[in-house]
Design goal:
- This protein is mainly alpha-helical.
- The chain folds into two domains: 1-119, no CATH class; 132-266, no CATH class.
- Helix content is 71%, strand content 0%.
- The protein has 15 helices and no strands.
- Helix 7 packs parallel to helix 9 (152-162), helix 8 (131-147) packs antiparallel against helix 9 (152-162) and helix 9 packs parallel to helix 12 (197-211).
Length: 267
């Protein structure tokens, strides 16, 4: 099935003002395709922009929003297509506005997972991000981390991705007490016996990128625990976002602070 068939269905649905057939067509495409976008005309580009926007528009029902988010996640799992959507279609803007909006009725966890996916490795993709947009996303994600356990894991994943942009984080969290509140919250999460492995890895990544290994968390017994957690994730063959984050964090630690490893391995 070709993607232009999805776009044709979308245009037909709009003209009829009936979107019942859209989930079936999109799900069929997801099951049968390789996540490549081949657009042949300016009309196709316009139609795709319209389809993406609809996923974050309160004019459409939850079923329509959810299946469009499914399609966006499907595309995002292919790095080439993800980059295409980030650059040519500026998908970060509608994604962030969708996440922070109270009027969007689609699955919130799914929406956060989409934003986590599209901010993954963003610092290496040379994709510009507007400071105001960044600040809105960061403030919203931090509020979730402070108050919503159900959304904690994807929110921490997003924060781990955004923490690579430490200068933008510092421009947003201008008060020292805001930084300390976040630091204390992350410590509480890391210290919890109930925390998931992914949430633990994401929290450690945030602390490293925002406070570096000068953070007391990377000293003494804490350093041993950090390495143990990260290596266990990799040794278990975890190739999820958590595993990728753990591998990248180990690389960052060894590059930025080689004595961090030396002090542990020589004991």
């Amino acid at each position: 099935m070709h993607f232009v068939e999805v776009l044709k269905c979308w245009e037909d649905c709009k003209s009829l003002e009936n979107y019942d057939s859209l989930p079936t067509v999109i799900n069929t495409y997801i099951q049968s395709s390789n996540a490549r976008i081949n657009l042949t005309s300016a009309d196709d580009v316009k139609s795709l922009n319209s389809l993406i926007t609809a996923g974050f528009c309160d004019e459409y029902c939850a079923a329509t929003q959810n299946v469009i988010i499914d399609l966006i996640i499907f595309f995002g799992n292919n790095i080439q297509t993800r980059y295409q959507l980030l650059t040519y279609f500026s998908i970060l803007k509608p994604l962030i506005y969708g996440v922070i909006s109270d009027s969007i009725i689609c699955d919130k966890i799914k929406l956060l997972e989409a934003l986590q996916l599209y901010t993954e490795n963003l610092h290496n993709l040379d994709v510009p991000i507007e400071p105001i947009l960044f600040s809105r996303a960061l403030n919203y994600i931090i509020r979730i981390i402070h108050s919503n356990d159900d959304l904690l894991e994807p929110a921490l994943g997003i924060l781990a991705n955004l923490s690579h942009f430490s200068n933008l984080v510092k421009q947003t969290l201008t008060k020292k007490e805001d930084f300390e509140a976040l630091r204390s919250c992350l410590l509480r999460i890391i210290s919890s016996d109930q925390v998931s492995r992914s949430a633990l890895v994401f929290s450690v990544a945030v602390r490293f990128h925002l406070w570096n290994s000068a953070d007391k968390f990377f000293e003494g017994l804490n350093a041993h625990r950090t390495l143990q957690v990260l290596f266990n994730v990799l040794l278990n063959g975890d190739v999820s976002v958590c595993g990728l984050c753990a591998g990248e964090l180990l690389g960052d630690l060894s590059s930025a602070e080689p004595e961090f490893f030396t002090s542990i391995l020589t004991r």
